[in-house]
Structures are given as C-alpha cells and as structure tokens.
Amino acid sequence: MLWWPTARVLAATVERMQVSSSEGIYHAVLDATLDTAPAKIWRVLTDFPRFAELSPAIQSSEAIAREGPSLWRVLTLSRACVLGFCKEMKQVQRVEIRDLEMRAQVLPEESDFSLGQAVWRVRSQGQGARLYFEASMKPSFWVPPLLGPWIIEYVLQEELQQSLINLEQLLAAGAGS
Predict the structure, then answer these.
(1) Strands, DSSP E only, in the chain?
(2) Residue 9 located in a structural domain
(3) Domain that holds residue 31
(4) How far apart are the C-alpha atoms of 67 and 173, rounded to whole Å?
C-alpha cells in the first residue's frame, strides 16, 4: 500500500492519497481541498471529453449513450507504460450524476476490467471545495504476480497526483467557468 500524508499540490491540499491492492483488486482514494468553487470543479469533472486533459493515462473519453436524465454510458480509452511496456485499456462505464456526486460502474463485458467502480464527490468547504474520489478496479488482463501489483500501485499513485495538478491547471486557465 502506498500513501502520502497531507501534502500541498499547487493550491490544493491533499488530505489523503492512498493506493492499495488485494487479491488483484486495486483501490485508490483521493481526498483534497481546493481554493475553487465546487460548481467550477464539477463542470470540469462532468465534461467527459475533457477526461484526457485530466488524467495522463486517458487517451480519449466520450459519452456514447444517454440512458436517462442523469445516467450515461461513457467510453474511456487509456494507455499506461511502465519500463517500456505499454498497455492500452478500454473501459465502458455506466455513469450516474446527481447533486455533485458521480458514480461509475464498469461494464465488464465491454471493458478490459472484470470489475470496477468509482465515486467522485465535490462539496463546499470554507471558501473552496472538498474533492473526494474513490475507485476500485480489477484488470481482466494478466498482471505479473511479483512486481506487477507494486508497479500498478505506483502508476496509480502518480496518476492521481498528476490528475489533481491537471485539474488545478484547467481551473486556473478558466475551465469550469
């Protein structure tokens, strides 16, 4: 398990950032405060095509179907490289958006993950916002047993940190306004 105590990343304060794995399931948590209005953060997080600007691993993301007033089917294509080995991954998720909370459930039959779920929450806190993200996923592809889990944990940790930095840069550039 990798974790960092409270740390500063640009203007955000990371209260908790943790990545762990157990029995092939990877779990990530990010809890941070930002000096930005919740509504601005929310507009960036729910702009599906913009996911590629948030996460260094995501190559493209798009809403491929609307299944209800607050329910979407979202396709995300990503690529991760470690020590020169790269893996392209596909995720199709059913995403429900309500009251500054987004819940995503991986559809395994259309994805490279046998299970996956994520939740994003944005809440007011003081003059800014509290951002909470939690995800669990299990790849359906082979992961080398000895170093594989440690490498994936490390890559996920770096991706969480870079995604937070990217979010702040997007917000500073006027995204979400």
Answers:
(1) 2-4, 7-9, 12-22, 25-34, 58-68, 71-82, 85-98, 101-106, 113-125, 128-139
(2) no
(3) 17-165
(4) 32
Map tokens 């199709």 to a residue.
92
In a domain, 116, yes or no: yes
Output the tens digit of pLDDT for each of the chain's 177 residues: 444 444 444 568 999 999 998 998 999 999 999 999 999 999 999 999 999 999 989 999 999 999 999 999 999 999 987 777 788 999 999 999 999 999 999 999 999 999 999 999 999 999 999 999 999 999 998 777 766 777 788 888 888 889 999 999 999 888 877
75 in a domain, yes or no? yes
| Interatomic CA distance for residues 144 and 140, integer angstroms | 13
In a 3-state reduction of DSSP, which class is residue 127? coil
Q: 35 near 127, Cβ under 8 Å? A: yes
Using the 8-state DSSP alphabet, how is residue 150 labeled? H
Domain of 73, CATH number, reads: 3.30.530.20
In a domain, 2, yes or no: no
**Total number of domains constituting the chain:** 1
